[in-house]
Amino acid sequence: MVLSSAARGFRGSTIPLEELPAPDEVGLDLPGAHRVHLVEPAVGDLPAPLQLTPGRVVGLVGSAGSGMTRLGLAMLAAHPATGPAVYLDARGWLCPAAAWEAGMDPDSLVIVRCDDPVAWGRVAATLVEGVGAICAEVPAGVKDPQLRALAALVRRRAIPMVLRPLRGDLPPGLAHLRLMARSVEWDGADAGHGRLGRRRLVVEASGKAVQGRTLLVELEDHGTDAVHLVPRLAAAPAGRAAG
Amino acid sequence: MNLLAEAAGVTVGMRRRQAEAVCPVVVTLVADPGADAARFEPVAVAVEELIPRIEVVAPGLVYAPLTGAVRYYGGEEPLVERVVKELAALTGDGYRLGIAAGPFAARQAADHAGADHPVHLVVDDAAFLAGLDVARLGREELAATFRWLGIMTLGELSQLPRQAIVSRFGADGLAAHRLAAGEDRNPQPRPLPPDLAVEERFEPPLGDLDRAGFAARAMAHRLMAEIARHGAAPHRVEVEAEAADGAVRARTWRSLDPFDEASLAERVRWQLRAWLDHARMRSGPGIRGGLVRLRLAPADVSDEGRQLALHEDAHVAAEARRAIAQAQAILGPDRVLQAKPQGGRHPGERVAWYRWGEDPGAPVRDPSAPWPGGLPAPSPALVPPEPLVLEVEWDEGIPTRIRLGARWVPITTWAGPWRNLGRWWEGAAPADCYQLVTSAGAFLCEIRQGRAYLTGVYD
To answer: I want to staple A46 with a disulfide (CB 3.0 to 4.6 A). Which of A50, B73, B75, B213 is the partner?
Structure first.
């Protein structure tokens, strides 16, 4: 798949997953049963595991503020869909300016607002039948069988879909790739002397897309093109330039 | 534009600043073609009562075929007198009438008419058109190219060999040459099934313009899809509407370029609005009691179907439009939206929302203008429709923690404040914006009159 160059903001490794070093090679040891791979950020597009795949569902799990909306918009912007992409907004809060900053063309994004769990399934299925890519917030009250039927429709129609439950999680095995927010940090604010600049988001990746493993992936979100990404090991303290 | 503005020297197409320089007291209004169509409806009705089968090109411009009516009224002069009398009664001296052998020449003749001679009769179309500037073709780029080549008038263009024009400029050149020579567009009729019309009945009757507009859009989509399958495109479409009281209204809309789905749906909506307004406000013929049937029938099709760009896929685009239109039918028009950037200091202000399928119009605030004091990027991905009260604790002017749901979360760092004075001349209170960073994420907060409000979430 050729990535669109319009995707901006998120940076991840271009290293294929199967070539990632084992945890002991990067010298990191976190508690818990997870195997940890730190993905070295580099200048480039969304890493292959984070790209939308036709016929597959990507699940984004995390509370408001965790960065999942922007990640979903970046994935949508990077996908070379023919025709408009749709954001199914269950909260009614989506700000398209964030989508434009992520590289989405204003004319290519349609926002559909639906907070009713009963109508949501019908609307989502209708949209899946026609549009090229869809990112959908799932309101509370949508039943698991509905989501599974939707995933089956996505497979048949061979379009990519991102699902973000507003409450709880997706049914097990529904998402080909499930990304759950683990931590989010911002720098640049500098206690009143700066402004929000770079966001570092750590997500736990699981599902068939990562061969059944559970990985921690670290992503950086710049929000604008003004700050150039540097390799993590050479990262400068906030407030200083690095190149 | 009204007569006073015209008399002061304002012309159609002039920029606003130019118009204000020429006429300092000129008032600029936002264009509303739908409202214009409604205001023009009485004029169209008056002409239609004298001359059947009129064709509306745009609000304010109507073509009427004279041949049959001339025989009925015993000559061209008595007919023109009747038309002038009706137009004068409705518009005062605000009308212009052009009479020629073809629609293009008639249009130019109407433009030539003035306040002191509102009727301009053309005897020889080619001779009349010969002296007109190439800008009259209405295709700016093509006219610029003609001028660059030394072709200044329609007469000079018509004298050039048609084949040479076609080989250099293609279909556009051919159309321009025909118009310059006084031959109006000659459609290539295609053998089509006898009835390509689409019709729909409504129970209960539709009295709401929005719902009628949706129905029109869906029908325009069906009609265009069906015509496109035959590789053709309509230049005229008849819109027929039946009211609950049994009255049937019909109007033909005409376009120089082939209609596409959006332009056709737009004209159907204008026409429905005109009929609804006419019945409601002027007690004239219109749609009373609601719309029970709508029919769209193409006429005058040509093989000048829209050429898709290489990257476009007509089928995919049509499928997407259909799916989104269905979602709109389920949820209502206000829930399927698009947005355009516009100017503003707060991320919410920088978004101009509009309903999918409708014209966004010009931005209210210029997005390219500087907005000092505006919040810098990145924009919060989530912005509540109305600011929500947020509990924030402060320690000597420094925010220390905020309440998210049932728990207090410490603020690890913050940015701001950015002070927004607002419309202080109207008594609005200033507001201070902060970006508050916690372990749960970053939030945009506004302090107004001592209270904190959540205005964005950096999700």
So the answer is: A50
A120-129, B234-243, B290-299 — which one is most confidently predicted on average? A120-129
Our CA-based measurement puts residue B240 at a distance from the nearest CA of chain A, in whole angstroms, of 30
ipTM score for this prediction: 0.77
- Residue A162 belongs to what domain range? 10-14+28-234
CA separation for the pair B3, B11 (Å, rounded) = 10
Is position A23 within any domain? no
Q: How far is B206 from chain A (nearest CA, A)?
A: 24
Q: Do A106 and B437 touch (CB under 8 A)?
A: no
> Per the domain annotation, does A83 fall within a domain?
yes
Give the type of residue at B10: V
Kindly report, residue by residue over A186-241, the tens digit of the pLDDT: 988 888 888 888 888 888 989 888 888 888 888 887 654 322 222 332 222 233 33
**Beta-sheet pairing, A214-221 with A10-11:** antiparallel
Per the domain annotation, does A20 fall within a domain? Answer: no
Torsion from C-alpha of A70, A72, A73, A74, nearest 10 degrees: 90
Domains of chain B: 198-328 (3.30.1490.100), 388-458 (no CATH)
Single-letter code of the amino acid located at A169 = D
Tell me the C-alpha distance between A77 and A52, whole Å.
10
DSSP character for A82? S
DSSP B132: S
Mark yes or no for CB contact B317/A65 under 8 Å. no
Nearest in space to B276 (alpha carbons), one of B237, B245, B243: B243
